[in-house]
Amino acid sequence: MASHRGDEGGWLCQNNYVMSPTASAKDTRERGAWVVVPLFNEAEVITEVIRGLCQDFVHVICVDDGSVDNSVELAQAAGARVLRHPINLGQGAALQTGFDYVASKPDATHVITFDADGQHRVVDAREMLELARRKRLSIIFGSRFLDKRTKPGLKKRIVLKVAVLMTRAITGLRLTDAHNGLRVLSMEALGHIRLEQNGMSHASEIVHQLAKAKLSWREYPVEVLYTEYSKRKGQSLLNSVNILIDLLVR
Amino acid sequence: MISQWVIAAALVLVGVYLLKARRSPNQQAIRRLFIVVALLGGFIAVLFPEYTNALAGFLGIGRGADLLLYSFVVFALFYAVYQYRRQLWQEKITTDLARSLTLTQAALEDFAAQHTDKKN
Fold this sequence. Notes:
heterodimer; A: alpha/beta; seven-stranded mixed sheet; two-stranded antiparallel sheet; 9 helices; about 35% helix; about 15% strand; B: about 120 residues; 4 helices; rod-shaped
């Protein structure tokens, strides 16, 4: 059993690379920010993603959305605290469940959303958190379009641009990357979020609700790693039609 | 033609219902009235076909059969939209239920973990 029961009553990440039996006293990992990872059938990559996160964060929460492979066991073995939906509801629903859980933790200062498919870099999450703390910002959105590191294909670029334009039209927030799963939210920002879009439309919904709350926000350049694996799971252009309808019909 | 306005207005109303309907006793009352009116209209159309023809003529549709077809389309559309909204409400309820189950289980596990810690 790789999870270690912590003094706050939560499961703490135990990572073989970082923690020797005596190292717990000088554990310098981040404790205030809780990472929420929505999980659905990602057995191929989840172990590595969770291990990476656990090197830097004490609280890594996986919300399993009814996976039918062994993602849950792998995530647990890698050190995550796994919450399980009894049925598949969608990524938006998984995020909201994670948010509710973190909101019940008095020591939490921030929530970081992080995709389970290995496309985000932990170092980006850490830098975004640091920026949020230093500048006292409520929300940091990761954006892959602020610099040239990320190289999506032409099709992906069009899909994401359409999403950005749609999000701008609906929310008025001038983001460069509307559908990046990497975000840092303060607990104050979290209080303004109530995701009702269970499916993939939650990304626009988060922006929408945060725009209404008029909190301080910023985008931060991140690199998105397009592996063969994550490319297979990409969204289609037609899905932006779904997102539009989802946001209009509620 | 009056008919064009009537049918267009009916379609707009269905669209408004799609976007704006909220779950409330008023909504339910409107829906039920709709069904009662449709039933009564159906009876009248069956018993007195000449009325349908007269109404169709008044609206500028021509034949009573066409009037029936048009009303059928509008009612069917309304029903589809109503079912769609109902499904959204249902999904929301299911989500809330599943989430509270998940969080309750998590809280129990956390509590158990804490408890074990104290005993050790």
